[in-house]
Amino acid sequence: MVYILFLDDVDIITIFHQKAKLSELKEERDEMEIQLQQTKMVLDELSDINALEKFAREKKMFKKEDEDIFVITYE
Predict the structure, then answer these.
(1) How many domains are contained in the chain?
(2) Which end of the chain is more exposed for a tag (fewer CB within 10 A), N or C?
(3) Is residue 73, in this structure, part of any structural domain at all?
(4) Residues 6+ apart with CB under 8 A from 42
(5) pLDDT in tens, 16-34
(6) Which residues, at least 6 apart from 51, have a Cβ–Cβ distance to it below 8 Å?
(7) DSSP labels for 29-63?
(8) Is 14 a member of any domain?
């Protein structure tokens, strides 16, 4: 009985560690699924050329060649 609980390759400590890691991986998977849904929504919104330009200007700080951009930050 001692061998099975503590000395075997699949002992009680290993089982607890694997269960903890499994729960962490499930949480990470759930977070990734949420991020995937958000990314899909953004891609759907970017199908319009005007929305694409707005996204590029606001999020990625793109600009046209003949314009200057001023970023105002509040402290």
Answers:
(1) 1
(2) C
(3) no
(4) 55
(5) 999 999 999 999 999 999 9
(6) 45
(7) HHHHHHHHHHHHHHHHHTTSHHHHHHHHHHHS---
(8) yes
Residue 65 located in a structural domain = no
The residues near 50 (Cβ < 8 Å, ≥ 6 apart) are: none
> How many residues would you count in the chain?
75
Domain that holds residue 50: 2-59
More confident residue, 29 or 64: 29
- CA nearest neighbour of 24 among 16, 12, 13, 36: 16
CA distances from 18 to 14, 26, 69 (A): 6, 12, 52
| Segment among 3-12, 31-40, 55-64 with least mean pLDDT | 3-12
32 inside domain: yes
Mean pLDDT of 54-75: 82
